[in-house]
Amino acid sequence: MLGLMDSLTAKISNLVMYGAHSRMTDKEFLEREISKWKASPQRIMQIKGFLYYENEHDIITRKRTMIGESGKLEVVENLPNNRIIDNQYRKMVNQKANYLLGKPFSIDCKNEQYVELLKKIFNKRFKKILKNGGKAALNGGIAWLYPYYDDNGDFAFRLFPGYEILPFWKDSEHTVLDFAVRLYLVTGYEGTTPVIIQKVEVYDLNGIHRYILDGESLIEDVSVENELSNTYHLTATDEEGNVTGLNWTRVPLIALKYNETETPLIKNVKSLQDGINVMLSDFENNMQEDARNTILVLKNYDGENLGQFRKNLATYGAVKVRYDGDTKGGVETLEITVNSENYKAIVEIFKKALIENAMGYDAKDDRLSGNPNQMNIQSMYSDIDLDANDMETELQAAFEEILWFINVHLANTGQGNFENEDVDIIFDRDILINESEVIDNISKSVGILSDETLVANHPWIDDPQDEMEKLEKQKEKEQEEMLANQYDPFAPGGGGQKKEGGAGDEDQEV
After folding, report:
1. What is the rounded CA–CA span in Å between residue 475 and residue 477?
2. N-to-C CA span, the chain
3. Beta strands in 57-115 (DSSP E)
């Protein structure tokens, strides 16, 4: 707790709470910042991104309204109220995440030993977490990786969504983290009654400090069994069973940003997604307002009131009318024609605008009809490619932090010091291409470009380094077979050479 106080005091030393001679305490500072952040528009938009991804759209709570007697809108319960969701936003998130992170990334480094150690850490589990982190960054503008050791003692990473983390940065560019607060919910019990508990973790250079948020007050969490786990980033157990606490020299949270402003994708397209949902819902509402629940004009109705009329119409599909002398009875409908083409046109406009504002691509684009060339395909991908460039820049910066924690882990576990190694992480984008055209261009480049470059750009290759190793083994095998054939007189194309002192020499003398 003392370390936390030292870290926060520098942050709030100039904040005055009650007067010139009374400063806000560290605990009060955290409570006020958490309270302000919980209901902030930025965090609400982050949560909206995840909700919309999971099909929880605003249209679900929509109610049908009408102008009442007072001239104000009133809720009407007896009209069709469909809530249709056509989740184009989720499609854009998946499309953009898979475009950049759908294929395994490559590691370019001259130190082969280091590359092999990195591959063990960057396993399939990590690549799955990274891809999920890309989706979380798109939904929330930012996501977080937490380096830790799992129950098996293996070095690994956990993913935290952006709406759980309140960061405090040292700089205005948001590149160096001073400390951070994590707020998350867990299920607990008060007696036998299930309750939701708000837990708070404060990450700084002196460890992790755990609290429970009761209303707006922070209470120290005494439920942590190991006191060291409530003070240090990590705990280690030696051969004799002694547990010691360890701290990283950096705050163990790595930011995965969608863009430099940390703006969620949903902020750019929410109104368009809502418009699509409203248009589809209104269309179905209007189609359902048939003769049994549309506007009716009654003439000389044989009944007590309009409520009874509606009930008879809904129950029997018929209504009784009177004919009194010159007064003719009847029922007429005041019909409003629903033009489906209008709805279709508006929905198509919204969908196209959503794709453009999300900087995605339309897989049904006219440029893909027939036999599209590579220029048409690249034109279709221009927007998503530009957006992926920004996201890749942020991920490359995140990988610098990731590699720092990995290097510390490798050094502390005696696997080597790789602090000064140059490593490039190469993202292989999952772009639609004209394979025959690309392969033809690669064939024409043989002798001009290196084999490594040609292999790396071949559309059938996922792991260029692995493919180069296979090519080397294939060449070695071919050379061995060629050398063996030169000395085998019975092999096809063999040289027919004979060893000295063999039966061939005696036959030659005879």
Report:
1. 5
2. 101
3. 65-67, 73-75, 106-108
Q: Which residues pair with 108 in a beta bridge?
A: 424
Q: Which two tokens stand for residue 432?
A: 């639609």
Low-confidence ranges of the chain (pLDDT < 70): 1-23, 69, 224-230, 237-239, 241, 290-338, 367-374, 431-437, 487-510
DSSP label at residue 163: G
d(CA 188, CA 165): 22
3-state class (DSSP) for residue 425: strand
Q: Are 226 and 235 spatial neighbours (Cβ–Cβ below 8 Å)? A: yes
How far from 102 is each of 99, 131, 302, 507, CA to CA, in Å?
6, 7, 69, 68
At 175, is the secondary structure helix, strand, or coil?
Answer: coil
Question: For residue 134, which of 287, 281, 5, 265 has the smallest C-alpha distance?
Answer: 265
Instruction: Give this prediction's pTM.
Output: 0.77
Scan for tokens 């036998």, then name that residue.
192
Task: Tell which phi-psi region holds residue 153, choosing left (phi > 0), alpha (psi between -120 and 50) or beta.
Answer: left
Residues 6 or more apart from 463 whose CB is under 8 A from it?
Answer: 104, 106
Q: What is the Cα gyration radius of the chain?
A: 34
Rounded to whole angstroms, how far apart are CA atoms 155 and 450?
A: 37
User: From CA 505, how far away is CA 311, in angstroms rounded?
Assistant: 117
Which residue is it, tokens 């309270």?
35
110: amino acid identity, one letter: K
